[in-house]
Amino acid sequence: MLHGKALNSTLLLLLIIFATAFGRSYPRFSRNDTEFQHLVLHPEPSVGTVYVGARDHLFQLDGSDGLRLEQEETTGPVSDSKDCLPPVTELNCPHSRRTNNHNKLLLVDPKALELITCGSIHQGTCQKRSLTSIKKVLFSTERPVDTQYVAANDPSVSTVGLVVGLRGGERTVMYVGRGYTASHPPISTRHLSSEPIFSYEETAKLAVAGRLSEYDHHFVMTFTRRSYVYFLFYRRDIKSASREYRTYAARVCLDDTSYYSYVEVPLVCRSHSSHHRTYNLLQAGAGREGEDLLGVFSTRISSTNSNPLDASALCVYPLDELDRHINSTRDLCYTQDGQVEGRGEVAYIEYEVKSSCANLPMNTLKAYPCGSDHTPSPMASRAPLEAKAVWHTSAARLTAVAVSVREGHSIAFLGDSKGTLHKVDSQVEVYANMTIQPNSPINSDLLLDQSGAHIYIMTKNTKRPVAECGDHLDCQSCLSAKDPYCGWCVLEGRFVVGVVEGAFFFFSFYCLIHGDLFCLSARSPAVCSARCQGCVSSRWGCNWCIHQHVCTHKHTCNQGVTIYNQNEVHFILFGIEIMQFPSPTSSLCLVSVTLFNCSVGRSDCSRCRTADPKYGCVWCGGAASSRCVYQDSCTDEVQHTCPAPVIHFLDPVSGPVEGGTVVTISGSNLGQRAEDIQNSVQVAGVHCNVIHSRYEVSSRIVCETTSSEKEKSGHASVKVRGGGLGLSAQVFRFQDPVLSSIFPQRGPKAGGSSLTIRGRRLRTGHPSEVSVLIGGVSCMVLDIQEDHISCLTRGSNRTGEHSITVRFGGAERHLQGSVYHYTPNPNITMAAPSKSFLRGGRIIRVSGQNLDVVQEPKMRVTLSPPDTLPPRRRRSIVRRNKGVPTRYRDHRSPMKRLRRIVPEYESRCTVNSSSLILCPTPAVGPEARRARVKVQFLLDSLHFDFSAVGNEAFSYEPNPQLYPLNQNDPSKPYHHKPGSVISVEGENLDLAIYKHEVEARIGEGVCSVKTLTNSHLYCEPPDQQPSVAASSKQDGMDSLPEFTVKMGNLNFSLGRVQYDSQAQSTFPMEAQVGVGVGASIVALIVLIIVLIYRRKSKQAMRDYKKVQIQLENLETSVRDRCKKEFTDLMTEMMDMSSDLVGSGIPFLDYRAYAERIFFPGHQDSPLRRDLDVPESRRQTVEQGLVQLSNLLNSKLFLTKFIHTLEVQRTFSPRDRAYVASLLTVALHGKLEYFTDILKTLLNDLVEQYVAKNPKLMLRRTESVVEKLLTNWMSICLFTFLRESAGESFYMLFRAIKHQVDKGPVDAVTGKAKYTLNDNRLLREDVEYRTLVTTTGGTTTQTVPAKVLDCDTITQVKEKLVEQTWKGTSYSQRPHIDSLHLEWRAGVAGHLILSDEDLTSVVQGSWKRLNTLQHYKVPDGATVALVPRNTKHHLHDSHDYMPGEKTPMLDDGEEGGVRLWHLVKASEESELPKHRRGSVRERGGERAKAIPEIYLTRLLSMKGTLQKFVDDLFTAILSTSRPVPLAVKYFFDLLDEQALQHNITDPETIHIWKTNSLPLRFWINILKNPQFIFDVQTSDHVDAVLSVIAQTFMDSCTIADHKLGRDSPINKLLYARDIPRYKQMVERYYADIRQTISASDQEMNSALAELSRVRYPLLFSHFYNSNDYYPTSSFFRQIITALEEDPTAQKMQLGYRLQQIAAAVENKVTDL
Questions:
Q1: Confidence of residue 82 (pLDDT cuts 50, 70, 90)
Q2: pTM listed for this prediction
Q3: Which residue among 15, 326, 1065, 1169 has the highest number of C-beta atoms inside a 10 angstrom radius?
Q4: CA–CA distance, 139 with 116 (Å, rounded to integer)
């Protein structure tokens, strides 16, 4: 907005309608010590209070009492700095200065009756004041947060606002648009009726992913209409090459709290006289009754008042048309990928947000009128809404506009920078220009009051009225002023303003009155005065109009009663002579006079005779000098017959034999009417039907040919009725065009291909009527010749074969035997490399699909100017320029400096194949090193940005320099010793080229480049000196080859090369004999070795065949066993699936899930603890913990807190994980903030590992951020785990448990017969049999159950509980320790069974656990589970116990007696842990159990579980259903971090993703099913899951695992499956990368919903004083770090933490 620079400011209240004539005094308020900036009115018209916002002041004026000052409030200057956060004190802001407070926003909340004021100080904070008294502050925050900074803190940066009540009336919000000063959003929605006041939610803003400074918004106004809010602003169009400023209109739904519906479209105000001239910068705007938008535009950003070329214009935009344009943009972006056929991309995603237009269902716009989280946003349109300027001026820049509507007519008031107020009526004519104050700009707040009777103008110290009706004393002067507010009363003979009942008013701009006026009463009889009598008695035929009081020649008056004259006289003056007539003796009336010249436009006879007979025009004279004249003026003979027709021109001169060609015959004397030549026009002897509507008298005949039936030619003839016959000099040909072939025969469906159709006689008919159709789609004709037609294909909506049709007017020709094939569009998937030297020529390999259909591939490089300086830097330059003489400054205007020429460079590419195009980079100038480089590949009509297909941004590097080989004397040759390499020195050699791209030659020979560094090139020359190239021979040195190096377009000649000749060495004869004897001995030894090797090879082959037979037998055995086991397992799983239909999968609730994930090593979860402090201190501690919770909401504090803890060596990894989980719970209600913290910490972690080894990042949970990431993934993927992967995982868990329980499991060692883990494999061949028992009892129903006779009693009870309570979750079942197993052998035979009793077998120091076999329980026996006498435990006994369950008695000793179950521990010797799984170390075991016995068990187990493992991996890695938003968002974040830190190694990025998702989440879940299910785990089941988890982890790594004899058997089991799983992982990562990016807005919306739903499930006040202590010992270091940070010091973070420590620890600290 514009602000005056003088100290004197004035507010004028100018009356639009006045009641007095002279001596008027207009209300005025002025101050000399400030500058008025904003103006608002009280919402109640009866109150009439006016509020003015000024620099350092607020004023409250009484508008009904002459703008009398009621109250004044001083708001500045104050101590402030743009770099300081409020509150500003000398302590926290030593560089603060006295700063003026400019009023940035002045708004009225009509519902709350509050005045909202925002200034430029204190980061643009706001206050609420009373409308009754501006001195009464209703709300102001002393310590605002960053979301409460509303206005721009720079006086020169614009801010606009709007107070709106949302639907329902519960809430009132304030929409704010502000220009760039910091990282604040340009548009946001602020709270006014809910806490925190003036703050905005994370999603309630316009998200800008790019740099705000590049856009540089300048907001002009905002308004609301219906259910939308509109913003008008201008900014840079960074999508265009010129980066010009353009005006935009943006719209968002009132109810849209996430800005999903945000759309902006350009506004263009185009000159009505010159189509190419536009006014592109909006200065002010106003609405007209909610239907139209009036805007004043200029062509410049700024202007001086004396600049005469500062053109401005007024444009009007219908708001309904604006809404249609916006809705069309949304529909294109929702349903058509933003594309329009033939126009390319029209709608797109702005502000570099990671989203893109989609292809959603066609009814998306109707179904989601305000968008949704799945619709793309923010949207923008490339197609502008244009309007023609209705009024323009070049005198000064327009700065303000207001609109008033009076009696259905619109009056616009336009203020300009020179202090002039222009008044424009509804006819768009300026009826007055009022100079308010010379060279004093009128402020844009140009307001009309609610009644429309007053206008308020803020300007300097001059006052002028808007309407001067009282200055007009007669009708003529009154009406000539053309003021819509002024009129003349004919009956009363005076001026009037407005409408008075009972009188007549004359508002016309012409006063047709002669003599004096007479006032007649509207209700009295019409009596003629003497003047009336003189009028009606005049011999001139004048009539008298009573009510208009005029004497007129018209037959009737426009209104009212007419008194007619008895004499009627008519005068018509013919020719070009004017007859004189006498003056009347009575009153004069106006007479109509007609002047007519016969010769004008009648150059031939036929035209002359068509003139109206009343004018008397005749064709006069002979053949040589004839002309059309008035009959009385003809001195020669009058010709009554016209000459024969003359044909000058035929167009076209050919047509198809079918006819239908529209032929234009031009000439003279071609008849006077179309009927004269109706049936007498022939072309080549064929009748031509005349088209009457296009006939022009005498000069042109347009006719349509009929069929000629065959090819023929001849002249055109015209015979005029009653006249002669005319023939054309040109010959017309009826032709039969023929199509023969087409080339090329295929092209992309996007169009843009050049097509040539060959044939004969193709130049038939008018070129404009020749069209080409390809399957119904037009092909734009470029050139037409006799033998070929060239056209450019347009886009088609389908691929396949299409017929070719050429239309010659109404005739069609079809190409027989050939079709055109529309292929899928070419697509580019990758382009590399991404660097080039300035001279260009480097080959860019462009990969993709369907590339061979491109005809003219090009590579275009656009160099845009670098980023402009920030505002502060620009101001410093301006200040420095103040002392520079004017002649040394840049005199270019601001817009000329802005419109920089953007150079473009192109190079032609070569199509190598359908998947490869080779593009040499174009040469550019040195400015490319400083400019922003944009690279595009132009594939006919399709354009691809390098940034979308390349791995990194494209850049140009300095040209390399190579020094001559002989640097001492380049004119001398370089001596080369054969056998050595040639070393060339230089600079910048490898910046933008690889060694295989460099071509080095010596003459005609190639010097193979072996090494290329920044400063050296090493190449291996030919063994023999190459010959000299014929083109390089020179006088004197033509015998030596030249050494040349080619690097792209660069060619270096580095001198000539001379090979040094070697003297032949003398080799003694004795040495030659010795060498021969030695060679013979070596040959004999080699022969002996070969014979021995052949014998050994045969023996090895026999052994190999024997082993191969054994392996085949083994494979057959394993296959049969797998089939049987798998069949049994599937039968069991089907039974279990039917059981799950009723009970469902036993998922844990979210709280239990979170407890086990966050605190896996803690039995007593902090979520379940109560505050453990004395009651006397409870309130103090609770307050301290609440303060700590509030302190955690400071991002600066939290990051400093975490970084300080992590550098403490005594802060263990366990403590770090614990603190991270506590923070996760504390921030669970603010997951958006939690995510922001995680991103910040992750960025710091990346920087830390990039300096060391980036591949090690996230490998272990050794830092707080790594544990935070684990928790974040667990929160975000809980729903996916339950809904997608949970079922497959549970089925795998149940399958493992079923298979393991089928065989013996040692209760002491935990080893099982059926397992995947060889360390847990029971290698002994234990005899056992399956028993089917009947379980009964008083508390349970009788059910059959399968057990093993070798099971211990505890194992039997576990299986019985599992099968009896199979529909009940584990935590609801009775614990086995609370039950006895009772064998019922008869009516009274009840025996309690136990693991140990007096019957247990004891052998020496070994005691065996009792089994069913020990008690000789038979098959079919009845057993019962009966409660113990102790308390029956149900739920409490099943609380989650963290950690892996250990075997029952792991080699434990009980009074010197060692327990054993199936095998004794000494018999199952354990290997060292680091050698477990190694086949080589098991030689001792093979004596007891050969590998076939136990390896087949592993293979059998693996084959049985294979389907369930595949199902689980597919569920995890499938992209057939939507990928979790958190996974996509985090993977994109890792890609951005890699790009930001120049990490191009794909393996590193793959490792990061693997460590963040599979390692950090899935492995944790796979190893711990109890984290998600309410189930019982055991060590033997966990052992199987650990193998599967390790297989999953191996599948996620890129490195190939080399397997050998020492490889663990666990890896050997899945060696053949891991490559397949790796492909699944790679495809999963690739599919995620190709999906639409998840924007911050979408992610924050999802996180907010998670917080809302899940946070109440957690115990919100979880803090416990014990949880506080892991970090309390480091408070001194934390506070020290906070005190060292200036920003933290200003926020007093250290002091606040000190107070918390004192409250929680109950002591006064000295920190």
A1: confident
A2: 0.42
A3: 326
A4: 10
- Same domain, yes or no, for 798 and 849? no
* 403 located within any domain: no
Separation between Cα atoms, residue 293 and residue 315, nearest integer Å: 8
Q: Which of 735, 753, 774 is the last residue of a domain?
A: 735
Contacts of residue 600, defined as CB under 8 A and 6 or more positions apart, other chains included, come to none
- Statement to judge: residues 981 and 1027 lie in one domain: yes
Pick left, alpha or beta for residue 1179 (phi over 0 → left; psi -120 to 50 → alpha; otherwise beta). alpha
Distances (CA, A) of 596 to 600, 603, 610, 617: 9, 15, 14, 10
In angstroms and rounded to an integer, the radius of gyration of the C-alpha atoms of the chain is: 48
- Residue 1347's domain comprises 1327-1461
* CATH classification of the domain holding 498: 3.30.1680.10
Query: Are 709 and 773 members of one domain?
Result: no
817 and 845, same structural domain?
A: no
Per DSSP bridges, beta strands 562-563 and 385-388 are unpaired
Backbone angles phi, psi at 684, to 5 degrees: 55, 40
Both 1394 and 1413 in one domain: the answer is yes
Contact 727, 698 (CB under 8 A): no
CB 765 within 8 A of CB 655: yes
CATH number, domain of 770, equals 2.60.40.10
Tell me the C-alpha distance between 1227 and 1648, whole Å.
12
1266-1316: pLDDT as tens digits: 888 888 888 898 888 888 888 888 889 888 988 888 889 998 888 888 888
Q: Are 538 and 587 in contact (CB under 8 A)?
A: yes
Among positive and negative, which fits the CA dihedral 629, 633, 634, 640? positive
Cα–Cα distance between 1565 and 436 in angstroms, integer?
Answer: 78
Q: Which residues contact 1421 (CB under 8 A, 6 or more apart)?
A: 1331, 1333, 1334, 1383, 1385
Bridge partners (DSSP) listed for residue 1406: 1403, 1458
E strand or H helix that includes residue 173: strand 172-178
Give yes or no for residue 1033 having a pLDDT over 80: no
Cα 639 to Cα 617: distance, rounded to the nearest angstrom: 11
Q: Clarify whether residues 1344 and 1418 are in a common domain.
A: yes
The confidence band for 535, taking pLDDT boundaries of 50, 70 and 90, is confident
Residue type present at position 1711: L
Residue 1236 has φ and ψ, to the nearest 5°, of -65, -45
Q: Residue 1184: pLDDT band by 50, 70, 90 thresholds?
A: confident
- Structural domain includes residue 1264: no
User: Quick check: 1691 pLDDT over 50?
Assistant: yes
Any idea how long the chain is? 1711
Rounded alpha-carbon distances, angstroms, from residue 1024 to 926, 1006, 1034, 1057: 41, 11, 21, 12
At 1164-1174, the pLDDT tens digits run 666 666 666 67
Could you give the CA distance from residue 233 to residue 213 in angstroms, rounded to a whole number?
A: 15
Residue 1334 belongs to some domain of the structure = yes
How many domains is the chain built from?
7
Is 681 in the same domain as 723?
A: yes
Cis peptide leading into residue 920 (ω within 30°): no
Residue 601 Ramachandran class (φ > 0 left, ψ -120 to 50 alpha, else beta) = left
DSSP 993-1040: --GGG-EEEETTEEEEEEEE-SSEEEEE--SSPPPPPGGG--TTTTTS
Mean pLDDT of the region 898-926: 84
Clarify whether residues 706 and 785 are in a common domain.
no
Instruction: Give the lowest-confidence range in 353-367, 542-556, 790-804.
Output: 542-556
Confidence band (pLDDT; 50, 70, 90) for 300? low
Asked whether residue 208 is assigned to any structural domain, the reply reads: no
Reference 744, options 754, 735, 752, 730; nearest CA is 754
Q: Minimal CA–CA distance to 779: which of 763, 802, 795, 762?
A: 795
